Amino acid sequence: MFDKYLIDAATVRNIGPAEAPTGFAFEAKLGYYRGLTLSMIEELAITLDGVELPREAVQFDEGQGPITLDAMETAYDRRWAFGTPATIIVNHPGGLPAGEHTLALRQKLRVSYLPFPAFNTDEKTVQAA
Questions:
Q1: Neighbours of 111 (CB within 10 A)
Q2: Options 3.30.43, 1.10.760, 2.60.200, 2.60.40; CATH of 3-128
Q3: pTM assigned to the model
Q4: Tens of pLDDT, residues 26-84
């Protein structure tokens, strides 16, 4: 239902020095109608131009500072509120080359009253400067 709102394509940007970007970042929203503690987010998988990027390259920041996906597993005191953008940071040497790219995000969420994980996906065509 909220999948088409996960990626904010207008926020995609390279990070690090302009002459040698270390990766890229973008704003994303939670695909669940209530907020969740970070420990309930089992996966944030990023695919760029059809290639899934390594889990170890991804960090998350809901406003309290970047955290790895492994550290999120025990982040019981941090919460991603519904409708609040968070920054997804991807270590990708060289950043995004100038031009058009296909960026996808898949969220795997553990929701307390569901007997199975909830999946939310979004894919957008984005422009890199």
A1: 14
A2: 2.60.40
A3: 0.94
A4: 999 999 888 999 999 999 999 999 999 999 999 999 999 999 999 999 999 999 999 99
